[in-house]
Amino acid sequence: MTTNTAGAKFSTGTLRIFGADTLSKIFEIILSIYVARHLGPLQLGHLVILLAISGYAEKLGRLSLDHAAVFLLGKERCSLRQAHRTLTMSSLILSLPWILLGFLLKNLITAHFLKLPEISPNAYLLALAHIPISFLLINSRKLLTQAGEVAAYNLTIWPVPVAQLIFLAASSLILPEFNLAAVLGASLAAQALAVFYAHGRLLIINPNPEKYNPTFVPELLRWGWRFYQTMIPQFLQIRIDLMLVAFFLDPTQTAYYSLATTASQLLWRLPQVANVLFYPMSAKMTDQEACAFAANITRQLALWMTLGAACGSLFIYPATQFLYGSQYLHLVGAFLILLPGTISMGVAKSLYEYFNARGLTQVTRQTAAITLAANVLLNLILLPILGTAGAALTSSLTYLMTWAMLARSFIKRTALPANVFWSFRQDIPVYQRLIKSMTGKTADFLKF
Predict the structure, then answer these.
(1) Cα–Cα distance for residue pair 379/390, rounded to 1 Å
(2) 328: nearest Cα among 382, 376, 257
(3) How far apart, in whole angstroms, are the C-alpha atoms of residue 163 and residue 65?
(4) At what angle are helices 3-61 and 80-104 packed, to 10 degrees?
(5) In this model, does residue 362 exceed pLDDT 80?
(6) In whole angstroms, what is the distance from residue 28 CA to residue 51 CA?
(7) Rounded CA gap, 430 and 11, in Å?
């Protein structure tokens, strides 16, 4: 696959996924506003913490087997049917210990994070029920992208918040009050529908059973463990701040900080969408093709995220006041502090995927481990003193550190000049052609 061909396929697929992701994010924002206004900051903080339980279990418990499966599929080491069957079984098996651990730690979570004497049994049970569903959903989405099923992947994205809104509206007509259990139940039902659709689609596109490959499972576990050692520190670096905020501060501050990080990480939608196709495509490329591909993508991501951050800094205050109400304005300061690091980490996410796709997990593992240690240390120092501003400052600094370390390793390995990340002169003709094409289509539409 040439770089031009890959670029065309990548651009088309990314635009389709970005459209669905944008639609999903719009409905997620509507859902967030609806829930925040009905629950208030305190109960919203409790909801954030309960959903974080399944989020942590999903990242820590899946052992990165989905990443390994896509990597091995790219190397033609297994069939799609075998990967699907294996990941489905592993999702169910690996989720069970985390559900049990959730029950064992219920009192600890209730007292030290939720800061409540007790939690509703229904709400807590629904929170734990998210764990196996999230395992199955993430794994099936990964396989859909590897199979080139962009349309099917999109249908597991934007309909989820839409279904949640529908279920919440229906429950408000049945239940006597709007509470945590109602929100968690709607979330669980919506994700379950997406799981059923994704698995049904995977069976349809690969209906014939494949011969079992006895070497696949050992290879899957071996590569999964290698990716796991990289992804867990990376995940904790991004999410440990929320748990530390929940531990040191009250649930109301947790709600403010969660909304601030969610708002700033809207900038990550573009790299996250790009990486959906970038990782499986670069895994199939030669080293020379992959490094040129990565340099181009990271440069474009840096440009568009910077523009997005500038817009966000202008509109965050009036948007928060109008959408959430004045009681949530405390999130604005943390949001602004997070922006520089959020841009850096967005670029770093694609560099992580580049090294993982090349099988160079030592680079990503060392970077993630060092920056995680720095994150925890700075949070322990700054969070008790500065509150949510300290957590935001810590995250921003360690995100910048992550980008710097990965960029240095990328330049050293590829021998490309350092300005590869910000030299946009070579991209001007591309944008000129794009503008010309869009102008021509607009003119044709107006003539019609």
Answers:
(1) 7
(2) 257
(3) 28
(4) 30
(5) yes
(6) 15
(7) 12
Helical residues (DSSP H) of 265-360, grouped into ranges: 269-283, 287-323, 331-357
CB atoms within 10 A of CB 140: 26
Cα angle 59, 341, 234 (rounded to 5 degrees) comes to 20
Average pLDDT for residues 425-433, to the nearest whole number? Answer: 62
Q: Is the pLDDT of residue 210 over 80?
A: no
pLDDT in tens, 261-304: 989 988 888 888 788 778 777 777 777 778 878 888 888 888 88
Residue 448: band (very low, low, confident or very high) from pLDDT cuts 50, 70, 90 = very low
Alpha carbon distance 113, 92 (integer Å): 27
pLDDT reading at 441 higher than 50: no
Gap between the Cα atoms of 281 and 354, Å rounded: 10
Max CA pair span of the chain: 68
| CA dist., res. 70 & res. 113, Å (int) | 36
pLDDT at 400: 95
The region that residue 98 occupies, defined by phi over 0 for left and psi between -120 and 50 for alpha, beta otherwise, is: alpha
Alpha helices (runs of H) in 105-179, residue ranges in sequence order: 106-112, 121-146, 150-154, 159-174
- Where do the structural domains in the chain lie, given as residue ranges? 3-447
Got the DSSP string for 375-412? HHHHHHHHHHHHTHHHHHHHHHHHHHHHHHHHHHHHHH
